[in-house]
Amino acid sequence: MSLSYADQTNGAWQTYLTQIDRVAPYLDADLSNFVNTLKSPKRTLIVDVPIVMDDGSIRHFEGYRVQHNLSRGPGKGGIRYHQDVELNEVMALSAWMTIKTAVVNLPFGGAKGGIRVNPKELSPRELERLTRRFTSEISPIIGPQIDIPAPDVGTNADIMGWMMDTYSSIKGHTVTGVVTGKPVHLGGSLGRVRATGRGVFITGMQVAERIQLPIAGSKVAVQGFGNVGNEAAYLFSHAQAKIVCVQDHTGTIYNAEGLNVKELQKHVTEHGGVMGFSGATIIDDEAFWTVDMDILIPAALEGQITIQRAEHLKAKLVLEGANGPTYPEADDVFVRRGITVVPDVICNAGGVTVSYFEWVQDLSSYFWSEDEINQRLDKLMIQATADVWNTATQKGCSLRTAAYILACERILKARKERGIFPG
Q1: pTM given for the model
Q2: CB-based contacts of 212, cutoff 8 Å, min separation 6
Q3: Residues whose CB falls within 8 Å of the CB of residue 355, separated by 6 or more in sequence, listed in order
Q4: 231-254 pLDDT, tens digit each
Q5: Which residues pair with 114 in a beta bridge?
Q6: Residue 233: in which H helix or E strand, if any?
Q7: 62 partner at 20 to 30 Å CA-CA among 6, 173, 371, 390?
């Protein structure tokens, strides 16, 4: 069985704090004085979101927007709709965005938002009302030069369109750059939907080459088959890897000879999950973690890889498509066992990178082709991966620690050079 959502989210902020504590000894003394700025959010907003339901009743939902750090630029981070969203989780996700944007060297800080709601229980009209009211409540602290939301779990391009329209109505003119991940005809970017999965593939290919793991013929297991896992699975299968196991909210399927990813994508589109796919065998959910694999792609929710699962995992390479899927203690197991982990803060940074491209295109009102987007994305991801790898080699540490060293140095140098107001 998978961990409960509450188990995953309650430890998310503590996981982040542990990661910061582990990187602190690697930082120069002049930056260590500022490291505590990373241990608490800059700004936290909790809002009541009342809406009129279709039956005329009034319901209240709790919403959040957390801006963790803005030293390097406007906040950047998604909006999550889930029935168990809570403040500690949103804080952790905002902090990981701070690290992520710095690792890829984007001119952003980190932010995140969410509403405690099961979006599947709302009608389309109720969902629109919820989104518009939430946008109005957080509008004082968002904007294209302040904090730029994007889609996350439970949200999509349509919701971003409603957010952009609501904010624009408040301002009295169209402000396309207030959110990213919008529909293309509303100022969205080509390539945005596939960007995170593509980033997982690009970083995975780079690191696989460095650890001399051939992709062709390698066995890949994917947890989560949404936009991220779906696209990553397709690209790895196109590179002649075998996608042998896939797990989503409906169950776990396995085929030692490799799943037909295109057919599986069609099945998921039609049936809403992987269960029932004819080209595979159903296995127990916990068995997912012990199947014969070379590469694991956790692309679901936080807190999936425990010490026990890390001890039994057969993978040589872990590509974190999800945010915070690995507990720090499990990281220690991976280091001891010689399993290479490409951490979330670089592995799944393709989405925020193309969000940056969308933001730039909106500000300039000049748009690029999907080929241009992919070329720019690949170039940035390859450079960021090389920077992290070289830092890990120089410092003799894991890729996660190396990513945090790079990110924290960039963030804290910006904090130091900006100074503390008033002086």
Answers
A1: 0.91
A2: none
A3: 76, 148, 150, 180, 181, 189, 192, 195
A4: 999 999 999 999 999 999 999 999
A5: 64, 80
A6: helix 227-238
A7: 173
CA 305 to chain centre: 16
Give every CB contact of residue 339 below 8 A, 6+ residues apart in sequence.
Answer: 310, 313, 315, 316, 317, 318
| Alpha-carbon span 151 to 159, nearest angstrom | 8
Q: What type of residue is 253? A: I
Q: Which is nearest to 220 in space by CA: 248, 259, 268, 277?
A: 259
Question: Given this model, what pLDDT does residue 9 score?
Answer: 45
Round to whole Å and give the CA distance between 136 and 178: 13
Strand partners, 283: 252
Size (the chain), residues: 423
Closest to 191 in 3D by CA, of 383, 378, 381, 371: 371
The pLDDT tens digits of the residues spanning 40-70 come to 999 999 999 999 999 999 999 999 999 999 9
With residue 237 as reference, give the H or E element that holds it.
helix 227-238
Q: Is 239 in contact with 227 (CB distance < 8 Å)?
A: no
Q: Which residues are paired to 220 by β-bridges?
A: 243, 295
Q: Distance between CA 73 and CA 84 in Å, rounded? A: 30
Tokens of 50: 């009342």
User: 151 φ, ψ to 5°?
Assistant: -70, 155
Q: What amino acid positions are annotated as catalytic residues?
A: 112
Contact present, 74 and 101 (Cβ < 8 Å): no
